[in-house]
Amino acid sequence: MTRSTQTNNEKMSKRLTFIKRLYKGATLEDAADDVGMSQPTGSRRTDLWNEGGLGQLMPNFGGGRPPKLDDDQRERLIKLLREGEPWKKQEIQHLPNTESDIKYHPNYLPRVLANLGLSYAIPRIEQLDRPDNADKILDERVADAFDEEGPKKPHNKRSDDNSGEN
What we know:
Elements: H1 10-23, H2 28-35, H3 39-52, H4 54-57, H5 71-83, H6 89-100, H7 109-115, H8 134-146
Helix pairs in contact: 1-2, 2-3
């Protein structure tokens, strides 16, 4: 192959090798067999090459399946999700269905959210038994931990606990 026809794409390389073999005098069947394609596929590749050269040999996958949500539905869903935060995973899963009769498999939900520029995370659970001054208590304990003299009294000792004193 010449430098202008080198490629990293394995499919394209195979197609170009097939065309090169034809130019070097191989029969259609032999050239197709050499690159592992059937004779009918080789015939189609030859017709494509004759119609438009290299551009016609490029694989064309047609862009894939269109998205389930159109642009307006996507914007509405993003707006609803941002307004009603936080959401449970099950609520997010049913939201497109209730808004626009579209169902997504639960395993596909993270990808849908990523495509919308969103993500979901497990919400932090509020501790009901957390004292109101928890930040102050934490700061005092950290300060005591780094204090060279040590804490004035143990932080885990109850005021009515006298078992350590004699």
